[in-house]
Design brief:
Layout lengths: L1 H13 L3 H4 L1 H20 L2 H17 L4 E6 L5 E3 L5 E3 L4 H14 L6 E9 L4 H17 L4 E7 L12 H4 L2 H8 L6 E4 L9 H7 L4 E4 L7 H9 L3 E4 L1 H6 L11 H6 L4 E3 L4 H4 L5 H10 L4 H13 L5 H23 L3
Parallel strand pairs: 1-4, 4-5, 6-7, 7-8, 8-9
Antiparallel strand pairs: 2-3
Helix pairs in contact: 4-5, 6-8, 15-16
């Protein structure tokens, strides 16, 4: 009887139960509904400028002076006196952001913001091809602000990166037409599955950074390629945990990435939806879970600017300011030693 009970318990441990395999899929289903619920408010023009200023203020309060957003560019709207919906021109998103930042920089002149034109990986090739053309048009018009292109959304259920090869191949001809380039900053590897091989394509396409890159450790050859091409992995510890990719941050693959010489930075990922602001929470949990020392933390902090989309002059100015802040941070900490 005891042997039967033991076998039952043992087999139970080896069974892939629903809660084991469906966590991230179920969470993503609810996660996407949140975006649908807030879409109307996010698209309301008079509110959008205040929203941008609030995001920037949250970051500055957390001592973050450079912001890079994945930006969905769609026309904003307002409601006129008669109660009719009035749709702004398509570039209203950028215009509202620029006005909001002009006001914000009156208080914080060192603050900078760049954007990566973003669409969704579950769209068709035809739709993404049109989006890429629009992205080139915006980059030509706002080269100091629009810095690249990305596709986001759930990776386990979305189209693969390779699925859009025809679209990626359009970049050379579009560069000739518009006179600007279009670097890629692809969200890839946000999956626990070794069958999701988008990281191969992200690396081969020369993505400047890779968002999440969670399953990188499944692919030793891609690790070599990422290091060879000096691609930075944008790690989002709390997002990965909340979305069900890792239950214990001590087991997060980024701790191995760092020890294998992969360049990483710490990024928040939809923090407002998860109920927090800034980057301190991500840094704190990463520091504790991965047993980071001061050298590790400094490398992650400085990578945020080293691999940013700032131009060289902006980057050097930002790094000088960051070094000063870092020295103040270390000096403050020394008081308690």
């Amino acid at each position: 009887e005891n042997e039967t009970d033991f076998k039952g318990e043992f087999l139970d441990l080896l069974t892939l139960k629903n809660e084991t395999v469906a966590d991230s899929l179920d969470i993503w289903s609810e996660f996407q509904k949140i975006f649908q619920r807030v879409e109307g408010a996010y698209g309301y023009g008079p509110l959008f400028g205040d929203y941008i200023e609030n995001v920037a203020q949250n970051l500055v309060d957390d001592h973050i002076m450079h912001m890079e957003t994945r930006l969905f560019i769609a026309p904003k709207y307002t409601i006129d006196a008669a109660g009719h919906t009035v749709v702004y021109p398509i570039d209203s998103t950028v215009q509202i952001i620029k006005r909001a930042e002009k006001n914000f920089r009156k208080r914080y002149p060192q603050f900078t913001h760049k954007a990566i034109y973003t669409s969704l990986r579950f769209f068709s090739k035809k739709r993404i091809a049109k989006e890429l053309v629009t992205a080139f048009q915006f980059r030509k018009k706002y080269p100091e602000f629009i810095k690249g292109f990305d596709l986001v959304a759930e990776e386990d259920n979305g189209n693969t990166t390779r699925y859009f090869n025809e679209v990626w191949n359009m970049r050379d001809s579009l560069r000739q037409v518009y006179g600007v380039d279009m670097p890629l900053y692809l969200h890839d590897g946000e999956s626990n599955s070794p069958s999701i091989k988008n990281l191969y394509d992200a690396a081969l396409l020369g993505s400047k950074r890779i968002g999440h890159g969670f399953n990188l450790m499944n692919f030793p050859e891609v690790i070599k390629l990422v290091k060879q091409k000096d691609i930075c992995i944008e790690v989002s510890p709390l997002s990965n945990q909340i979305l069900g990719y890792v239950k214990d941050l001590r087991l997060h693959p980024a701790s191995l990435m760092l020890r294998h010489g992969v360049q990483c930075s710490i990024s928040s990922d939809d923090p407002a939806i998860f109920g927090y602001a800034g980057l301190s929470y991500d840094y704190w949990y990463a520091t504790m879970a991965w047993e980071l020392d001061l050298r590790d933390i400094k490398k992650l902090v400085f990578n945020s600017l080293t691999y940013s989309t700032l131009d060289e002059i902006e980057k050097q100015e930002a790094l000088v300011a960051l070094l000063k802040s870092w020295e103040q941070f270390v000096a403050y900490g020394n008081k308690f030693l």
